[in-house]
Amino acid sequence: MMRCAHQEVTEHLSKLEEHQKEMVALREQLKTASEEKKQEEERIQQMQEELRRHWRIEQEEPTSVLRR
pTM for the whole thing? Predict the structure, then answer.
């Protein structure tokens, strides 16, 4: 009888460890996705700033593109 209870506890602990590993993996995926999103947002911001600069240059010197 004690052997059966011990086996149940061992199985339960194994399931908990497996669940913990899955949670760690999911946490890592979430962290990676969050970092990728941040990088993408930074790229978008840089592109917007570049477009604004280009637009300002064009407003100041409409022919600047033709000279390049």
Answer: 0.62
